[in-house]
Amino acid sequence: MQGDISKKNWALIWVLGLAGQLCWNVENSWFSTFVYNKVAPDPSIISWMVGLSAVVTTFCTFLIGTWSDRLGKRKPFVSIGYIFWGVFTIVFGVGEFLPKSPITLVATFVVLADAVMSFFGSFGYDAGFSIWTTDISNEHNRGRLGGALAVMPVIATIFGSVVSGLIIDALGFFDFFILMGGLVIVIGFVSLFAMKDAPDLRPRREEKSYWQQLVKVFNWRTVKQNRELFWVFVVMLVYFIGFNVYFSYITIYFVNYLGYTFTIAGALQGGALVIASFMTIPTARLIDKGYLARVILYALIANTVGLICVAFASNIVLLCVGMFLAGCGYILTLQSLTAWIKNLYPEDQRGQFEGIKQVFFVALPMIFGPLIAAPVINAWGVEKVVNEVAGMVPGPSLFLVSAAVTAVAILPLTVANRLHRQRKSSSAFPQNAAS
């Protein structure tokens, strides 16, 4: 595919992408805050919630991604997934009205409701929308596409932090979940009429049965044939473990440790990220010119330094500087990894490889990140009473641990870059990736 992405498809990328990222932001940031303030200040509930939803998300992407490859269709999965994604976002908020004794009942409800919501989120976004963006793009415009897809979580975080904080302070959590879920439902119906699959998309039935095609991707030979791609996946794995150590708790830290309101906590996160998002514009040009690994290296350094600044921030200025650097690191790493990975996907297994990506991007990071965070909070956090329930609130140590894990991502990045240079210098391999 040599042409550029059409204006209509760019509009759909932004509408569907932003709606999806807003819903993910609601889950990743506000679900945890909701649990702390309306259920119990217990990090183990969040660990279970985040871990189970990560497993469900990955499992769904494998199943539905393979199905969409065999059908040669993405649109139905986007539309159906988005509609039910919104429905179960609203359902999750019902947990506020359940009795808190025994706490196991409401804890089980929010964990399961989040898992079902995550299933449909993956159904529509990961196994539908994300693969569709790969179908309609090529190596010449994936720097711009990666920039757009990377800045969307930042915009969602800015909106989700600032506007969501205002809504929650004014109306409460349940009305907030109704508004966000309703938005995603509407976007799902819009996609039914406005979205079209890539014109060159065809059914990919590499095996006789669905299940044979599903398990094909788990062959060790697949890893050997795609060594560069899997090392890029490892970079993604390490980085997002570090990210998930702190991300689910950052609003809790601002509100329950530093003492800010939801509105101010949102403004602190959003203000610095607005500036950070503009970095994707020059970075897109660097990526398309072939400097992916270099961009990721600088992004990892900025991210690590930013988290250290947040940990030691004694005033709001240093806090904003830290959030800006961490935000730059996040969006530039995601932008670069997105372009690099999409360039290396086997054309006939894009749906399945999106499932593999979810193992490294979602499942393992969202399991190990909170598993690291929980003992750190319990050992070095602060004991407080939140909503008349005693519990542990995260302290600065959480960001120091996250910074240490993030810095480790430089090691697999070195290997991935070496493999890329080998591939690029050999005429036996296609010259379509960036270093």
Number of helices: 17
Oligomeric assembly: single chain
What shape does the CA trace take? globular
For the record, the CATH architecture stands as Up-down Bundle
CATH topology: Growth Hormone, Chain: A
Would you kindly provide a written description of the structure presented here, covering whatever features stand out?
The chain has 435 residues and is mostly helical. It has a single domain (7-195, 219-425), classed as MFS general substrate transporter like domains (Growth Hormone, Chain: A, Up-down Bundle), CATH 1.20.1250. Helices cover 78% and strands 2% of the residues. The chain is globular. The protein starts with 6 loop residues before the first helix and ends in a 10-residue tail after the last helix.
Q: Could you write a compact summary of the structure shown?
A:
The chain is mostly helical and 435 residues long.
Detail the topology: elements first, then pairings:
Elements: H1 7-39, H2 43-71, H3 75-92, H4 103-135, H5 142-171, H6 173-194, H7 210-216, H8 220-225, H9 227-246, H10 250-257, H11 262-277, H12 280-289, H13 292-312, H14 316-344, H15 350-380, E1 382-386, E2 389-393, H16 397-408, H17 410-425
Antiparallel strand pairs: 1-2
Helix pairs in contact: 1-2, 1-4, 1-5, 1-6, 2-4, 2-15, 3-4, 3-6, 4-15, 5-6, 5-11, 5-12, 5-14, 9-14, 9-15, 9-16, 9-17, 11-14, 12-14, 13-14, 13-16, 13-17
Keywords:
single chain, 435 residues, mainly alpha, Growth Hormone, Chain: A, two-stranded antiparallel sheet, 17 helices, 2 strands, 2% strand, disordered C terminus
